[in-house]
């Protein structure tokens, strides 16, 4: 039987995919990850969170989009090679003129829990449309999310949709700061832009979105979790901007405003 050390965990991105990402702010990468690698990730997610995706302790941020649990994939030899593949793809998508390496900023499991069930943790609602950038408290652009479904899913599972070109509108605020309004009401410019249908993902298909791209997802109408693994690369020269971050604990790493992210906790995944 093939093991994850025998297989190439993911493929390279094509120039057409890079062009699509840069123009639209997101891209669908068909068959990007080998099915064997997806199976490894799904088993790891279920071991961490239970078959129901809801047996973990609360992770501290209560929101309806998904339940979450740190994956710490870089510590796992069965996952680390894939993260380097993602690093190489992220570097191509960032397309910086300077030769800037790519850092793993965060990786976590994000099952969206079934909307029709009472759940222990939060995370069984819709993902309201939002932009990620300000949440991450970094001082520059370039960050992106590799959104990796761990099974084949369509819209009924609560898959992603993107407002194309919204990455060119600049910083649109934190998702908690709209006083209960939809981001499209606060920024009507967004309604002039095309919004994609919710994506159909076959096994191994993933999407990548820029942290400037507005995106959302429906509720999960299945009777089981919609499993996803999220990997967030950043340009290695990005610094913490000193604002309260959602994705890391600066004190745990002795970080200072405008200081570097330490390589031991935020490893370089493409040189
Ligand atoms: O998984 C979801 O429904 C939402 C994911 C998301 O908001 C993100 O990747 O920033």
Model description:
The relative contact order is 0.22. By secondary structure, the protein is of the alpha+beta class. The protein is 16% helix and 17% strand. Strands 1, 2, 3, 5, 7, 9 and 10 form a 7-stranded antiparallel β-sheet that branches. It has a single domain, classed as Jelly Rolls (Sandwich). The chain has 4 helices and 10 strands, in the order H-E-H-E-H-E-E-E-E-H-E-E-E-E. The structure holds 2-oxoglutaric acid (AKG).
What features would you highlight for this structure?
binds 2-oxoglutaric acid, 4 helices, 3-stranded antiparallel sheet, 271 residues, 7-stranded antiparallel sheet
Blueprint of the fold:
Layout (H helix, E strand, L loop, with lengths): L14 H10 L1 E4 L5 H15 L19 E2 L9 H15 L7 E8 L17 E4 L13 E6 L10 E3 L20 H4 L19 E5 L4 E3 L10 E8 L32 E3 L1
Antiparallel strand pairs: 1-7, 2-3, 3-9, 3-10, 4-8, 5-7, 5-9, 6-8
Bound molecules: 2-oxoglutaric acid.
The site of 2-oxoglutaric acid has 11 residues, from β5 and β9.
**Mean pLDDT figure:** 95
Main beta-sheet annotation: 7 strands, antiparallel
Overall, the morphology is globular
SSE run: HEHEHEEEEHEEEE
Question: Any idea what the CATH architecture is?
Answer: Sandwich
Q: Which residue ranges are poorly predicted, with pLDDT under 50 across at least 5 consecutive positions?
A: none
How many DSSP E strands? 10
Distance between the termini: 32 Å
Radius of gyration: 18 Å
CATH topology: Jelly Rolls
Helices and strands: which structural class? alpha+beta
Oligomer state of the chains in this structure: single chain
CATH class category label: Mainly Beta
User: Which distinct ligands sit in these coordinates?
Assistant: 2-oxoglutaric acid
Query: So how many helices?
Result: 4
Question: What percent of residues adopt helix (DSSP H or I)?
Answer: 10-25%
Tally of discrete structural domains: 1
In CATH, the homologous superfamily goes by the name q2cbj1_9rhob like domain
Determine the strand fraction and express it as a percent band.
15-25%
């Amino acid at each position: 039987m093939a093991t994850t050390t025998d297989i190439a965990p993911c493929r390279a991105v094509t120039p057409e995919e890079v062009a699509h990402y840069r123009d639209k702010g997101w891209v669908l990468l068909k068959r990007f990850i080998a099915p064997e690698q997806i199976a490894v990730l799904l088993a790891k997610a279920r071991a961490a969170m239970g078959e129901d995706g809801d047996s973990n302790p609360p992770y501290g941020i209560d929101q309806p989009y998904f339940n979450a649990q740190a994956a710490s994939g870089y510590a796992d030899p069965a996952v680390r090679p894939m993260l380097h593949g993602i690093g190489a793809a992220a570097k191509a998508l960032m397309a910086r003129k300077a030769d800037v390496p790519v850092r793993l900023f965060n990786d976590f499991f994000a099952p969206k829990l079934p909307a029709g069930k009472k759940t222990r943790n939060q995370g069984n609602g819709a993902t309201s449309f939002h932009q990620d950038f300000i949440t991450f408290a970094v001082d520059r652009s370039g960050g992106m999310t590799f959104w990796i479904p761990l099974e084949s899913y369509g819209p009924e599972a609560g898959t992603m949709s993107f407002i194309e070109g919204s990455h060119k509108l600049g910083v649109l605020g934190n998702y908690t700061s709209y006083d209960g309004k939809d981001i499209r009401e606060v920024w009507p410019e967004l309604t002039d832009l095309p919004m994609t249908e919710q994506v159909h993902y076959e096994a191994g298909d993933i999407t990548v979105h820029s942290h400037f791209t507005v995106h959302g997802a429906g509720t999960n109408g299945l009777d089981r979790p919609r499993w996803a693994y999220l990997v967030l690369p950043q340009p290695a020269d990005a610094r913490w901007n000193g604002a309260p971050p959602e994705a890391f604990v600066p004190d745990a790493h002795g970080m200072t405003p405008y200081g570097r992210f330490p390589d031991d906790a935020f490893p370089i995944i493409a040189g």
